[in-house]
Amino acid sequence: MTVTTPDLAQVAQNAADLASAAKRGVDTSAFDVPSGDWPFDVHPVAGYVGAMVAGIDLRTPMTATVLERLQRALAHYGVLFFRGQHIEPEHHAAFGRQFGNLRTPAPYMEVLESCPDVCVISTENGKAYLTDQWHQDVSWPERPTRYSILHMRAIPSHGGDTLWSSLYLAYERLSPSMQDFLTTLTVRHGQPGNVDAMHHDHPLVIRHPVTGRRSIYANPVFTQRINELTPGESQALLAHLYAHATTPEFTCRWRWQVGDVAMWDNCHVMHYALGDYHPHYRMLHRIEIEGERLLPAVPVACPVP
Ligand SMILES: O=C(O)CCC(=O)C(=O)O
Ligand SMILES: [Fe+2]
Predict the structure, then answer these.
(1) Is the distance from the beta carbon of residue 266 to the nearest atom of ligand 1 less than 6 Å?
(2) Cα dihedral angle (164, 167, 169, 171), rounded to 10 degrees?
(3) Is 122 left (phi over 0), alpha (psi -120 to 50) or beta?
(4) Which of 39, 57, 270, 282 stands the most exposed, by the fewest C-beta atoms within 10 Å?
(5) Residue nearest to atom 7 of ligand 1 (CA)
(6) Listing from the earlier edge strand, what are the strands of the sheet with 295-296?
């Protein structure tokens, strides 16, 4: 592990920009990067979401400090990218276990025989064709998936990028009246096309457990309805929120190299794997880490036990 120093000129420039924006009355809260005594290099890849982290070898167990800082960086940036991590599946799973319990893959997923916590998503097994939609991973249980960790193994020569969007920004860029209204609502998340399967009601606006920032918690694949509205109202409002949440400025886009690892916090980002490379081959390994029950941004009459 190398401890790196931040780029001081850039840090000073960012601080000057923020001070000047605040003087002009601009709300700068979305830019407040946790002050950076990171024990690794952090390079943001877009304005609001995503950062590349260097100076960490994911095969080596982390110190408590590195683990805590990575969780803080995830809580702020939403998705972190680690280049050139040619890890084995056992390293992948061991890295993930340091953040919590691994979710057992659903029976319909292909897993590695040697390491059954690791799913294979490929064009060959067809699972790569299901992820070109905006979604959060496994959002329907009471304790939804918190983190997903993806290790890219094979890429097409072009295409196959992945996008992430910030659900913090989606909330923060709504009018105060709409923000207030949304915090009174709950959403049912369940598996698509099966209203009787496992489902759970979550607050529509959650409070992030690390930053305390508010985030929308809904996605077009797993959110079935807003419980307090009529079906027509629910559909119209969710459609508006999804269109708003995927505003290009609220997103980042990652051009993969083999060996890249991406880790994201499903509490406050959605993602979308671009399906623009067929019939070429793409394959990745993935694990998920279970989260806790979600916290409402304000007390809502959320029908959860
Ligand atoms: O293929 C990708 O880039 C992302 C796939 C996906 O949605 C996931 O692994 O959760
Ligand atoms: Fe996904």
Answers:
(1) no
(2) 160
(3) beta
(4) 57
(5) 131
(6) 214-216, 205-207, 295-296
Angle at 22 between CA 18 and CA 28, to 5 degrees: 65
The tens digit of pLDDT for each residue in 25-35 reads 665 555 555 55
**C-alpha span between 245 and 170 (Å, rounded):** 5
Domain ranges of the chain: 8-164+255-292, 166-245
Q: Locate 36 and state its tokens.
A: 């950076």
**pLDDT of amino acid 3:** 37
Locate the ligand 1 atom nearest the alpha carbon of residue 284 and give its number.
1
Q: How far is the CA of 17 from the centre of ligand 1 (A)?
A: 35
- Of ligand 1's listed atoms, the one at least distance from the Cα of 271 is 7
Q: Name which of 228, 216, 213 is nearest 301 in CA terms.
A: 228
Quote the ligand 2 centre to 229 CA distance (angstroms).
28
**What pTM does this model have?**
0.89
3-state secondary structure of 110: strand
Q: What is the distance in A from the centroid of ligand 2 to the CA of 160?
A: 14
What was the pLDDT predicted at 302?
55
CATH fold of 8-164+255-292: Double-stranded beta-helix (3.60.130)
pLDDT at 33: 58
Low-confidence ranges of the chain (pLDDT < 70): 1-36, 195, 299-305
Compute φ and ψ for 219, nearest 5 degrees: -150, 155
* pLDDT tens-digit map of 53-95: 999 999 999 999 999 999 999 999 999 999 999 899 999 999 9
Closest CA to 6 of 47, 37, 28: 37
Contacts of 33 (CB under 8 A, 6+ apart): 14, 44, 76
| 74 DSSP assignment | H
Q: Indicate which atom in ligand 1 lies nearest the CA of residue 262.
A: 3
Nearest CA to ligand 1 atom 2: 273
